[in-house]
Amino acid sequence: MAADRRIVIENCAIATVDGNDTEYASGHVVLAGNRIESLGAGKAPEGLENVARRIDATGHLVTPGLINTHHHFYQWITRGLATDHNLFDWLVALYPVWARIDEPMVYAAAQGSLAMMARGGVTTAMDHHYVFPQGSGDLSGAIIRAARETGVRFTLARGSMDRSVKDGGLPPDFAVETLDGALAATEETVRQHHDASFDAMIQVAVAPCSPFSVSTELLRDGAELARRLGVRLHTHGSETVEEEKFCHELFGMGPTDYFESTGWLGEDVWMAHCVHMNDSDIAAFARTKTGVAHCPSSNARLAAGIARVPDMLRAGVPVGLGVDGTASNESGELHTELRNALLINRLGAHREAALNARQALRLGTYGGAQVLGRAAETGSLEPGKLADLVLWKMDTLAHASIADPVTALVFGAAAPVTASFVNGRQIVEHGRLLTVDGDAIARSTRDEAQRLARIAAQ
Q1: Which of 26, 118, 404, 455 has the most CB atoms at less than 10 Å from its CB?
Q2: A single Pfam family, by name (predicted)?
């Protein structure tokens, strides 16, 4: 939409998730082009020019769009497998299947992952893709193409692995890259696709997979590469007790100390999971402003444990939410993670004081923007920020009897998305994707899942 064209949204409850957690029981939001121009209580100002559209949002809650900080899109076509495994056994079962992916499979899986998230209120997504079998095609390009078509804001965490079975790792030998090959391909992906501008729709991060599948050299050189190119760094960290044991046996230190020794703590870094963190680990993350992608459903699915999110937040660690790959979170939706983050953390040491509804919403919005390095642009509803927001319908049977709309959104059933805007463009209307054909994507993901299963069985 042209910069001087306005969309006016009125008569809605608003949770801004700004620094003061400002909320309005009945208010308005004015979008101008791809920015939030103004918002506040009551009706929009009189006399606004160039109003292209007015939305009566009676019965709705408006929030910032949800931000996903950890995912593996390719896993959309391996959902429902190894359902009773812990992380290590799950990886052993699935790596031989994942090693057979190719470009059409990855494109279809990315379409499915993105469509499911967008339909459920995600406006900024990311994908940590680290499986690049030899001869599999342009996988990064396929993922980015799917993100552009869906219309979400997107970060590709260009992953890599160079420790295969022959080196004591888990991936098959033909599914990993060489050290030099991984670094060169990552640099080329950044140079080709990364946009550093304020309203960037596509960004790229450097993302070696994990200590299990990556050499110390790839971690260290990857960190140097990211900082030379001015992009962020992402990896898995402290996910299981097995990782803790592995790091002590191989490197003589725990995961956090190992990451710090390779340059992997800092305000430009975020790590997925961080389940098994002691007080010293949390203090190191807080001191360096290293971010965390909390994935409560996946952690539960793989019996990894309960991350110490309340302690991280109290220490000042940036924390966002992640779907994680849909082979370990088959729903593929981020809005369910608001509820699961709150409920699962209440099973931990802090019990009912662990998290409340507004803290959970902050994790899924502003916290995610912090973790992805985009808190100046998105994650809260404030004048001058990007027009990424969601209208949740709160007056149906599922929520109408709950007085507080934020409580209803987090504690209640998944709320219908009446409208979702990204960069000022509407991409969802009444739960239906406007940018892509959801039914066609369902068919293509089913076909590619079946094709992968046939290939893996040979």
Answers
A1: 118
A2: Amidohydro_1
